[in-house]
Amino acid sequence: MSVNLGFIVLSLVKIVAILAYLYGLFWAMGHANRLVKVAGVVLAFGIIQIALSVQIGETQILNDFDRGLLFQACTMTMVALGLNLIYGFNGQFSLAQWGFYGIGAYTAADITYRWNVRDARGLLVAGIGVILGGLMILAVGRLVRRYQGMPVLSQFTLYLIGSVLAGAVAVVIGNVLNPLLVPLFGTPDAPGILASPAVMQVVFLLAVLIAGAFAAGVSFLFGLPVLTLGSDYFGIATLGFSIVVQTLMVNTDTILPFPEMKGGRGMIGIPKLTTWFWAFLFLLAVIVIMRNLIHSSTGRAIMSVREDETAARAMGIDVAFYKLFAFVMGSFFAGIGGGVYAHYIGFLSPGTFDFLVGFNPLIIVVFGGLGSMTGTIAASFGWIFFLEGLLRVLLSQMGTEAPTWRYVLYPITLLLLMLLRPQGLLGNIEWGFLKRPAVALRARAAGK
Amino acid sequence: MTQTLYATTATTTTEPEPVLEIEGLTKVFGGLRAVSNFDLVVRKGALDGLIGPNGAGKTTVFNMISGLYTPTSGDIYFYGENLVGMEPHEITQLGIGRTFQNIRLFPNLTVLTNVLIAYHPHAGYGLFDGLVRNRKFEAKEREMVERAQDFLAIFGLERYQDELAKNLPYGEQRRVEIARALASEPKLLLLDEPAAGMNPAEITRLMEYIHFIRDRFNLTILLIEHQMRLVMNICEQITVMDFGEVIARGTPKEVQNDVRVIEAYLGRGAAGRQGVSA
């Protein structure tokens, strides 16, 4: 048994460095000067990009292992931020987040996988399906609003029928259009325009967005009836959802018509398209959307639901709508995270989306502080770099069985944290950009 | 009985238009008739009171007006529009604001945020404006904050704006609740025991506030209260409930001398022994 002291020190340095990096990034983004903002973001992107590619002597500054950790942290941040919106800001205890993450991962992976094997149906069907589904939700929504007081299960039935129709139409259109596009892929020897790397990048971007939208659509259908349940019952229903999703993943090739996903054996051959550029871009986009949402009137309405539903109703807040909205938005982030994840790991296994692993984002959100964006982001990065980066490697050096100790050590850490700091590590603290904009006391007019 | 009382109020029709008209309102919880055949007319600009012993059904009436409970039967008209079957937030948006008997602020949000939330239906910008933070968002958000600060200033709460609501003293929390209800831009304000837990000096100030906000915001106010001093001093028309029914209605003076009211508060036979022992 030997423990590499240098590795421990280096890992701790990395954790501190990444937190300092995040602090600096948010400081710059929160700066009043637009130049500082842009420079900060570009610099933040550049530093990591350089560290990932430049070698000093024999060693790369950030090696492939660090790269994996970094991407893992980025996707975990997106998932956890989404969950924080649902649980931390809206107060709905959800265990379904990991399921939406999985849905996003498989959706995006299927689109690019098929594209890679010269089949445009993935993109066509999913893309058209998502657009039609969105239009259907708007249309049915108008219909439902006209008939006041329609029971929620009747609404659900309408949306469900609409979704099935939208899906069927998308499949038909996709199958009709696909043969027209196939020739444009060319042959393996003479790749056509659609097989070019640039188009692939666009397809990847679309795939991730569609994955987010698809996860959001599923969460809409699921959340509409289930969010009417009280908090604890909702939690149990979401647990059920995660189990259903995982079961379907194990059976993608048997009860679902997706042989390329290979069921429990895991989906291989997903093009590894996630670069630091994309990971950083999606991370930043999720953070900016989340922050702008929270610090707007909509965000305040979402928080009022958490604080006191009855009072929120009496203040004119449509509680049912904002619960559903937060849930859908949070799932959208999870779907995006899933899409990014699938394309850096290149391999999807249903085991990854087991509901037990799904407690990780929940723990991160609670650990970082419910209702704290900074806490969630810092905890996601800290979590990945500490548990995966340090502890797992460290313990594996101590013996083959030792990594199991992780699952003894970190629950104890959590217990201690909950006892000592129940509001989470960072409580209500927000860094720079994520802070609530300060509202100046208005100077009262003289003589008033 | 209620029928005749209703008739007496209906004869005074020289008054302004009715804001709130309640007819035959009944709420049954299991075997309990919490409110039974309740009638009420509140006219524009009125400051009326709803009193009665504990458990008389006053708050249940408020909860039905604000849509938190669905009446078992009966109708509630607000400017001629029937509110029965509407969602609470729709009723609030029509112009009925309320406070709660046990304070229901948003405890972990700042005082300013509490008031801003009530503005949400009148925010004037949508989700998209908020996400991209365009000029419309900036302008409307500033306008909202300024108006919220105005409300806080009226109630002398501006220095607490960044304080979490739960950290405020009780009296201030009550005032924040009223400020928040006003921010929802009501035409009719329902105050559920606004003076609960206040000392005599605070009650005096509260009475001034209530008069002031009615005149300043052109409000119609209906309040539930146990503090007789407050009710008798500021209410113009009082409805007395007991066991879910209206037992008396009239001016403070009329109600004060009503035998049934005295019985309801002090027990049967108390009307005769008044002054012997309380």
Note the topology.
The complex is a heterodimer of chains A (448) and B (278).
Chain A: H1 5-29, H2 34-53, E1 55-56, E2 59-60, H3 64-89, H4 97-116, H5 121-146, H6 152-181, H7 197-226, H8 231-250, H9 276-294, H10 297-307, H11 309-314, H12 319-345, H13 359-368, H14 373-397, H15 406-420
Antiparallel strand pairs in A: 1-2
Chain B: H1 2-11, E1 18-29, E2 32-43, E3 47-51, H2 58-65, E4 73-78, E5 81-82, H3 88-94, E6 96-98, H4 111-119, H5 127-132, H6 135-154, H7 170-183, E7 188-192, H8 200-217, E8 220-224, H9 228-234, E9 237-242, E10 245-250, H10 252-256, H11 259-266, H12 270-273
Parallel strand pairs in B: 3-8, 3-9, 6-7, 7-8
Antiparallel strand pairs in B: 1-2, 1-4, 4-5, 9-10
Supply the key terms.
heterodimer; A: 448 residues; mainly alpha; two-stranded antiparallel ribbon; 15 helices; 2 strands; 69% helix; globular; disordered C terminus; B: 278 residues; alpha/beta; Rossmann fold; 2 domains; 6-stranded mixed β-sheet; 4-stranded antiparallel β-sheet; disordered N terminus
Task: Offer a quick outline of the entry.
The complex is a heterodimer of chains A (448) and B (278). By secondary structure, chain A is mainly alpha-helical.
Number of helices of chain A: 15
Q: Which value, in Å, is the CA radius of gyration of chain A?
A: 23 Å
In the CATH hierarchy, the third-tier topology of the largest domain in chain B is known as: Rossmann fold
Q: What CATH first level of the largest domain in chain B would be assigned? A: Alpha Beta
C-alpha termini separation of chain B: 28 Å
Number of strands of chain B: 10
* Average pLDDT, all residues of chain B: 87
CATH superfamily of the largest domain in chain B: P-loop containing nucleotide triphosphate hydrolases
Question: How would you sum up the global shape of chain A?
Answer: globular
| Number of beta strands of chain A | 2
In percent terms, what proportion of residues of chain A is strand? under 5%
What about the largest sheet of chain B? 6 strands, mixed
The structural domain count of chain B equals: 2
Helix content of chain A: 55-70%
Q: Strand count, sense and closure of the main sheet of chain A?
A: 2 strands, antiparallel
Order of helices and strands of chain B: HEEEHEEHEHHHHEHEHEEHHH
Tell me what portion of residues of chain B adopts beta-strand conformation: 15-25%
- Which overall shape of chain B is indicated by the principal axes computed on the Cα atoms? globular
Oligomer: heterodimer
